[in-house]
Amino acid sequence: MALAEDVANAMHALEMLASRPDGRRVSEIAERLGINKAIAHRLLAALVSAGYVSQDVRTSSYFATHSLGALGLRQLSSSGVGTWAQRSLDSLAAESEELVRLAVATNDSLQWIAKAQGSNSSLRLDPVMGQDAVPHATASGKAWLSTLSSERVDVVLDRESSLDATPRSALDRSALMLELDEVRHRGYATTFEEMDLGINAAAAPIYGAGPGREATGTISIAGPSVRMTRARMAELSPILLAAAADVAKSWPTYTYLVADEELSA
User: Which residues pair with 13 in a beta bridge?
Assistant: First the structure.
């Protein structure tokens, strides 16, 4: 049990460091993991020895090395994302002339892993791949939440406080639950400058594990609010939903990307 906890804490520490290029101090990592500093220091020392973490001798902060990013890139490459979903992303981006993103759900989080950029104008959006989507403030997050049970939604929302990204809109659980009902009826979710000023988005869930199951990911279209109006999102919704269905068809080949209750224990 101790080994399992150590492995889990080490992975959570890597997740914390991956989003902070300036690093974190051992006391901060220990506090966020809910462990004492001695255990956190031991875990970080092991990660340093493995080459995935380094320590700044001036500040004593720990930060993730490029080896961690290289590992993630190798995993994405071996998963076949380039051939699995890129065609659908490129097609949707070309037709919508906006930024298209693919996100994958893993346990209680949703991460963007691939994108395609349309060519509408000189204004380009370039999000960091691998970043967690804030569930209540992104179209991708809402699309995913709409497929979860109310109990699972609560678990995911409880985790939001651990994310580094800060949304512009506060979490209102009652209002969100009503909105998720609308998303289920409509088939896609929307956001209007809730995460980033001047940016609107629409997203559809991807049912890679089959209809009626939790979404295994999402596909979204994002663009400047002056272009991505509510009416424009409605116009784009048929091709957005078609792209989600197209990606879902090939998803079973990559079922290891799907959160599995038996493997999450």
Answer: none
**pLDDT tens, residue by residue, 148-202:** 999 999 999 988 766 656 677 888 899 999 999 999 999 999 999 998 889 999 9
The separation between the first and the last C-alpha atoms of the chain, rounded to the nearest angstrom, is 11
- Topology of the domain comprising 2-69: Arc Repressor Mutant, subunit A (1.10.10)
Among candidate residues 68, 129, 123, 70, the one with its CA nearest the CA of residue 102: 129
Task: Note the pTM of the prediction, 2 decimals.
Answer: 0.70
Helix axes 86-96, 230-250, angle to 10 degrees: 160
Residues 85/250, Cβ–Cβ less than 8 Å: yes
Closest by CA to 33, choosing from 5, 60, 63, is 5
CATH topology (fold) of 80-257: Beta-Lactamase (3.30.450)
Q: What would the two tokens of residue 215 be?
A: 């979404």
| Strand 109-117, strand 189-192: pairing | unpaired
